[in-house]
Amino acid sequence: MEKQDLNLEKERNNLVQFIWQERKPIIIITSVSFVVAVIVSLLITPLYLSTAIVFPAASSNVSFSEQRNVKAAAMDFGEEEQAEQLVQILQSSRIRDKIVNKYKLLDHYEISKDDVNKNYKLNKAYNGNFSFTRTRFGSIQIDVLDEDPELAAKMANEIVDLIDTVKNEMIKERTIPAFEVNKRKMAQLVQQKDLILFQLDSLNNLGVVSNDIRSNLFQALVDANNAAEKAEIKERIAINTKLGSLYDALEHTRNELIIKIEEFRVSYEQAESDANAAFNHKFVVEKAVVADRKEKPKRMIIVLVATIGGLIFSIFFLLIRQRIQELKLKA
What we know:
This protein is α+β, with helices and mostly antiparallel strands. The chain is about 70% helix and about 10% strand. The two termini are about 35 Å apart.
């Protein structure tokens, strides 16, 4: 154990002695690293950060049913599921493409439109400057980096506004076809009802009456005062005997259709609301503001890391060089 400690102490002394002997090249390499790091850090374009924070809404529609969305009122904040959905929407190409087109990011990031890798470079630049993260409080943090602080704030706030636009577009892709189906079904039911009402009116014009009135015709025949009146009542009894069952069937169908239409109206009104309404899907906690100081680069950290890296590199380089020279002498 003591022998190992002595060897370790010897190696340590040898390293210190070596560093002292090679102090000049070490200082030169470290100094060069320091100067290069300072120059590079000064050449890096500073980036400014703008941040917006939003909460997802729990409900995205107006409910016409007592059983629908009982737990998700329009005033409630969304939970983890809604937050994850919102992050996915923010990361989607729907929002990215709108931002890229509106703010001409191809030109802004100096990417040639003729470049065969323009989409790759654009996505890389976009993903490096735009980030969307869910906080531990359940909110969504939208961060935008740009060399222009005003542009960074504008793009962050534009993304906040696009949440409703894009999500409503996605919802309408499903709700509009659903409403069209409900609309056709409602029109079909109303058309059937109108057809039956027309048939009932036609039978009424022929003298056919409902079942409760029909039963009084025989008493009217008994109470008739003259032959002409009796003949008229007999004619009405004959037509009701012939077409009465048809009238009753049409009347029964009409009543069922009226009930069916009223029951279907809730579904129809819900589909109409979902298809035509533009909802707000988020609560804005904090809007992005223009940054008054840069976020990147951290020049002090760059210089410090580069200087320490240069120092370590110079020591290892000189050690390896010395070892190579020793091996050559032995050979």
